[in-house]
Amino acid sequence: MTPNSDIDLLVDIQKDKKTFNNFLSLNHFLEDLFGKKVELVTTQSLSPYIGPHILKTVQYVSVAS
């Protein structure tokens, strides 16, 4: 990781909260929080090729609403 690196986060959003606006709001909130560009990826959008490798190294964090 370099000082210019972005932060890649795998997110799983509750079905009743899964909207484009909520996704963008979360992205902006995290960028403001970390002071870096954040790339959000949903579990549903993982590539079938690289997804299994990503899931092996995931570190889970639970966030209460």
TrEMBL record:
It holds the Pfam family NTP_transf_2. GO terms for molecular function: nucleotidyltransferase activity. Residues 1-55 form the Polymerase nucleotidyl transferase domain. It comes from the Bacteria. This is Polymerase nucleotidyl transferase domain-containing protein. It comes from Puia dinghuensis.
